Amino acid sequence: MPAEAAEPVMIPPDLWRRPEMLDALKKRNIGQVFRLIRQYAGVSQTRIGIAVNLSQGKVSEIMRGTAQVTALDVFERIADGLHMPDPARLALGLAPSPSPLIEAASSRRAIPPRDGMPASQLLSVEGVVIGPRPTDDLWDVDLLTLAWVVGRLDARMDRRTMLLLAAGMTAETAASIADPWERLSRALKGPQMLDDDTIERLEARTIGFHRLEYVMPARAIYQGLTTHINELSTLLQSGPPERYRRRLAATAGEAATLASWIAWDLKQPAQSASFERVAALAAEESGHRVIQACTYAYRSYAVTGPEAVEHIRRAQQFLPAEGDDATRAWLLAREAEELAALGDGQAVELLQRAEDAHTRARPHRERAWTRFLDAGRMAAFQLSTYVRLGDEQHVTEAGRAALAALGQDEDQKRVSVVYTDIAQAQLQLGDVTEGVAYARRALEAAQRTESTWGMQHLAKVEKALAARPDHAARELLGDIRATRRALGPSPA
């Protein structure tokens, strides 16, 4: 093999931004992608083939159009081999590539606590963003548009839907959706320009960010989310009419609860605490105390045992006497699984109360954060609770229901947790082969989403794996520990 063929493929960054390249990526026309790389980067078919693990003959067929790329794993292999930047990967319909977190700038400052000050004076999160943002980075604009579109969808939001939408959110298509941003730009210049449509679009965008969190790594949406919160802050500080002020404060609070959770996932506890304070102040100013219920519910995932139960019960104090049944069901189910981990039989009663609340609930109509609570998530709560109680009969039934609710393009963070619980159940029953297989799937889903939550959940099977002499169990245990080191220590 010639020496030059073994050299890494170097593609000028500008090539990925060329209109013809973006068009080829959107159409998933890999033949055109290869031809453009050959034309503008001077890369031979052999070097392309080595980079993407295809034979030179197959690359030639693809470039001539006699062979097509259709498999998702091949698209991902090509994107990885060519080191596509995230905007190019999104145009191709793929998730952003994993990369280390950018360290926060030294000038970053936390939002100071100022008791008694209105939320509208504290909502600015300038300086809380992780790392600098290049001026030519399209992520914010595209992600803000994507969140708005996703937030308006009534249909179920799975990974494939998100990827298809993301693939269309190029600079060109985002610019074509001009009306919402023109309205927002006018509103940012003065409260007299605010109208119901603008408020509704901001509310939809907050919902969209909550939905994107199910299927995208935290780092991929954090900066866009802080931009969104800053815009809400600007509008609140402009002195909007009372009929809009409370809605803006509630929307900011719902966004801040998510930002707090994401900051925790990104190992940024100080920023997480800052956003918690913002959420609390926004809850007070808007009159929607239930926003703090969401904050404490998220916080309960960062700890275990009695401390987690304490956070959940604190969250329940912010529920109204009636209504908000989706949040009520979530909190009851969370309390059930945490009590089950403590061996408390009261968990079964709480689980039934959670089911009753979920029957009354309308998750897609209540709060920005409640859209995750479908039948599949309730089945996952049942499984988690019965696994921790050691109830083998109900574990089998709940496991079947949870698996039946998982689609091929399901929320990968949920997939990780469900597979972890099934793995734990199988290991408890002595079926090591199945336990290791499900734990492996759980790890792959957690890696795909870079989920701290998923990795924390996997800790529950590590003890069982450590006690096994089997080669497969030891190998998996090593992979879990390596992934944990790569993602960094738990922020809890």
Major pleated sheet: none
Low-confidence stretches: 1-6, 99-141, 170-181
Order of helices and strands: HHHHHHHHHHHHHHHHHHHHHHHHHH
Question: Any idea what the shape is?
Answer: flat
SS elements, strand count: 0
The number of helical elements comes to 26
Structural class comes to: mainly alpha
Radius of gyration: 24 Å
Strand residue content: under 5%
- Which percent range fits the helix content? 55-70%
Distance between the termini: 51 Å
Task: Compute the average pLDDT.
Answer: 78
What's the SSE blueprint?
Elements: H1 13-17, H2 19-26, H3 30-41, H4 45-52, H5 56-64, H6 72-81, H7 86-91, H8 139-152, H9 159-168, H10 171-176, H11 178-188, H12 196-215, H13 218-237, H14 242-265, H15 269-286, H16 290-300, H17 305-316, H18 325-341, H19 346-360, H20 363-366, H21 375-389, H22 392-404, H23 412-428, H24 432-449, H25 452-466, H26 471-487
Helix pairs in contact: 2-3, 3-5, 4-5, 4-6, 8-12, 8-13, 12-13, 12-14, 13-14, 14-15, 14-16, 15-16, 16-17, 16-18, 17-18, 18-19, 18-21, 19-21, 21-22, 21-23, 22-23, 23-24, 23-25, 24-25, 24-26, 25-26
Description:
With 492 residues, the chain is an all-alpha fold. The chain has 26 helices and no strands. The chain is flat. The N and C termini lie far apart (51 Å). The model is unreliable at 1-6, 99-141 and 170-181 (pLDDT under 50).
